[in-house]
Structures are given as structure tokens and as C-alpha cells.
Amino acid sequence: MKKKAAFLLCVVTLFLVGGCASFRTASLQEWPSEPVAFDDELRNLYREASLSASGIRSIDGFADIWIKTPKRKERIFSSIQLRRPGGMRIIASSGFFDWPVADMLLRTDSLFVHDLINNRLLVGTNTPENIEKVIGVRSGYKLLSEGLAGLVENEYPPDAVRSVRRGGGKVSFTVATASGSREILVDQASRVVEGFAVSDDSGKKLVEMHFRKFVPYVSNGVTVRLPAEIDMLMFNPVLDGGGRHEMVIVYDERDLAPKQPGIDYRLPGNARLVDLDKVGMFPLR
Predict the structure, then answer these.
(1) Residue 121 phi/psi, 5° resolution?
(2) What pLDDT is stored for residue 16 in this prediction?
(3) What is the domain count for the chain?
(4) Least trusted range by pLDDT, from 116-120, 142-146, 166-170
(5) Residue 99 belongs to a domain with what CATH number?
(6) Is the pTM value of this prediction over 0.70?
(7) Smallest Cα–Cα separation from 102: which of 65, 68, 127, 145?
(8) Minimum mean pLDDT among 2-16, 82-96, 120-134, 147-161: which range?
(9) Is 19 within the bounds of a domain?
(10) CA pseudo-torsion sign 124, 231, 147, 66
(11) Cα gap 209→47, rounded to integer Å
């Protein structure tokens, strides 16, 4: 009888901690392979796709996030506030009842994470290494904010495009950068950005994003389309075992005109301080 009670307690505990939602993983996408000339029509498509995210400065939303690395496999429910270029706040919840477990503020130069379970305040510079310590994926702030929002800012003019490929109603534009290249995938019919990739100077892919299930929103009197589902894949991170790291974001709701113009983040007064710049891998559990 005691063994049966213990077993039922374990089942209930796992149910409360993990919830009942199935785990989602990211998948690689096939990119166009047919080289084509960068004519006036495709130049206009490139310009239009590059401007699609430029006017959006604020986003508030609620999303499910799945994170998978060689050492971690977690699902969290998150409240996300993004203010461009000021910063981003993420309140992460977990378990069947979505209990808050972490309150994070990420700025372009620093980050603060209140570990609500252990009452610790993790503080450090905003580097890919520190972002990986707290959420498990290695990413710079700009890339992470673009991935979470489903917005890719493209500051490169058409003259920077080095190659264009087309296929299946999609067009990919490759731009040379100081550290390698970046590739943007655009749907020709809807004229929205459906993919984004970054490669190093040897051609090795470092990051790939996919944007799906676009939803129309009105921002400053203009209708824009944002993805409800986002895949982020990062390859060969230095920390946390290396290999492929991935994140899937699925929005339940989103607001492009929030009433609160800034981010109201208050540092806890009685939490134990942890300097992220001086510790190794430090996952929040």
C-alpha cells in the first residue's frame, strides 16, 4: 500500500512539474537552390522584406517556449515584454499551474535574473555565454530578441547582396558580413520573411530561424504580419556540451501597442547575489 501511495505521489509530482503538453522540437528547413539574377523585381522584394520589421518598437505577449540542448529539455510558459532598443523582460513559469520560476531583464549590455525558487539574483554582462548559463541556449542579445519577437532587422542595402536563389515560391538573399554571411528567406507571394540564417567565414552555419503561421496586426496604422510560431536552432555552442541547441516559441497572444511604454523591473531587496561573470554553467531549475 505504501509503495502504491509513493508511486502515485511521484506521478502527481511529475504531472505538476512537467504539465501535460507534448514536447515540441525545431526542424531544419529546405532552402531554395536555384541561382537567379538579382533583377529589379527581386530588389524590390528584398527592400520590402527588409522594412517589414522596422516600425515595430514594442511587443507584449504570452508564449510557450520549448528548449532542447544535449543536456537540457524544458518547457516554460513566458510573459514577454520587448522594447526596442531598450531591453526585454521575460517572466518564466513552469509546471501544470504555471508557477513563476524566474523574472529576467535583458538589456543590450547587462542582464538580471531573479531565481524565484531559490531567491537568488543572477547579475552579469549580456554576453552569449551568460545567456546560455540562464536559459540554456547560446545567443547574443540582438539575435535572441529578434527570435523571440519573430522580427529580423536587416540593415544591409540591396548592394550588399552577393547571391540570390529561388525555388518553391521562396527567395533567399545572401549578404556578406564582416564575420561570414547571413541569409534571408522571403515568401514571394506574402512578401514576409520566413527564415533567417547566419554562417561563419568558412560557410559553417551557426544559427537558423524559421517563422510560421503569420498573424496580421496593426502597428501605427499599418498592417504587419508576425509569426505565431518560431524555431531557433543554434549549432556547436561552446558551453553546455556543444551540439545542437534549439528553441521553439509559440505565441498565445501578442499586443503591438501596449499601454505601458517602458519596462517596470524592480530588483529584489533580499535575494542572494550571484555574479554570472564569475560562475560556470548555472541552469535555472
Answers:
(1) -110, 110
(2) 38
(3) 1
(4) 142-146
(5) 2.50.20.10
(6) yes
(7) 65
(8) 2-16
(9) no
(10) negative
(11) 20
Which has the closest alpha carbon to 195: 147, 136, 252, 237? 147
Q: Report CA-CA distances (Å) from 52 to 46, 107, 136, 255.
A: 10, 24, 30, 17
Close Cβ partners of 252 (under 8 Å, ≥ 6 residues apart) = 61, 62, 63, 64
Q: Which amino acid is at 285?
A: R
Does the residue 226 lie in any domain?
yes
User: Of 35-49, 65-79, 107-121, 183-197, which range is least confident?
Assistant: 65-79
Rounded Cα–Cα distance for residues 80 and 173 (Å): 30
- CA quadruple 20, 237, 206, 244: dihedral sign: negative
Say which residues have a Cβ less than 8 Å from residue 90's Cβ, sequence separation at least 6: 78, 79, 80, 81, 102, 103, 104, 106, 148
Instruction: Write out the H or E segment, with its range, that includes residue 244.
Output: strand 244-255
How long, in residues, is the chain? 285
For residue 6, being part of any structural domain is answered with no
Burial pattern 97-128, b for ≥16 Cβ within 10 A else e, equals: eeeebbbbbbbeebbbbbbbeeebbbbbebbb
User: pLDDT class for 221, splitting at 50, 70, 90?
Assistant: confident
CB–CB of 69/243 below 8 Å?
yes
CA distance 230 to 26: 9
What's 170-215 look like in SS3?
EEEEEEEECCEEEEEEEECCCCCEEEEEEEECCCCEEEEEEEEEEE
Domain that holds residue 156: 27-253
Cell of 50: 527588409
